[in-house]
Amino acid sequence: MNSVMLEKYINEYGKELYSFCVYLTRSRQYADDLYQDTFLVAIEKDELDEDRNPKSYLISIAVNLWNNQKRKYMWRNKKAAIVYYQEENLEQLAEDKETAEEQLIKKDEIEMVRRLVDGLPEKMRIVILMYYMQDMSVEEIAKTLKIPAGTVKSRMHQAKARLKEGMVEYER
Which of 1, 34, 121, 135 fits a 20 to 30 Å CA distance from 86? Predict the structure, then answer.
């Protein structure tokens, strides 16, 4: 891959990939490293093909790298949990036209959904993020994660049920 192609992929998919990395790692520091490592692996492998959905390929590299990093971390720390730091203000909340009350309600709802998604088991969280955040189809997710499409559907169904449960609890 030459520098022109790399620049093209960074311009086209960089922002979405970085956002995915932030949600996946729950930390800007880890996301920065994962984002850079993803493009480094893509350069090393030189298998990016414009006709074969490069965005999906880059996301699969990021997921695989993250899983490898977690595995190494857990091995080194005798299966201790990774400590994440929640960062505030990952996206803008509302337009200026909304009242302060509407902005506060919207911010509260966004934070609640984030907490619920963060509370999902990682296998479900990754599938939900790929589907809703990256607009990937079930088939693309299955191919990227190298699991059957039925497993993707099952994880999505379970995740949605947990999110719905959490939202009902929140409403009370």
Answer: 135
